[in-house]
Amino acid sequence: MSPCVAPYVSAAGSSREVWTILERMFANQSRQRAMNLKEKLGREKKETRPVSLCLEAQRSIAAKLSLINAPISDEDLTLHFFRQSLYCAPCM
User: Fold this and answer.
1) Please, where are the H alpha helices in the chain?
2) What angle separates helix 51-67 from helix 15-43, to the nearest 10 degrees?
3) Does residue 1 sit within a domain?
4) What angle is formed at CA 42 by the lines to CA 59 and CA 33, rounded to 5 degrees?
5) Half-sphere exposure of 76 (CA within 13 A, CB side)
């Protein structure tokens, strides 16, 4: 067990209690991370970048959301991309 986690779970009487304590400790951080990533996805603009780089950046954010159990569907990601493209500089 990691020394930085031990003080928080040392009083737990079972492995179930350990997991419950850890889940509560990190749940808020996961929600905050998901909100930050979704906000970042919302700010993602095409600007003068090639379409392939825009899609790569958005897929990267979507992958990070999936890793923290807050996935975004392919349909929503596609819709987001096209909406952002309408309001950004034309393709070069």
Assistant:
1) 6-9, 15-43, 51-67, 74-86
2) 160
3) no
4) 75
5) 10
The total number of structural domains that make up the chain: 1
Residue 42 sits in which domain range?
A: 6-86
Residue 75: CB atoms within 10 A of its CB come to: 8
**In a domain? residue 92:** no
- Residue 89 and residue 46 in contact, taking contact as beta carbons nearer than 8 Å: yes
Tell me whether residue 12 is in a domain: yes
Which residues, 6 or more positions from 24, have their beta carbon under 8 angstroms from its beta carbon?
none
pLDDT in tens, 18-77: 888 888 877 777 788 888 998 888 887 767 778 788 888 888 999 999 988 889 998 988
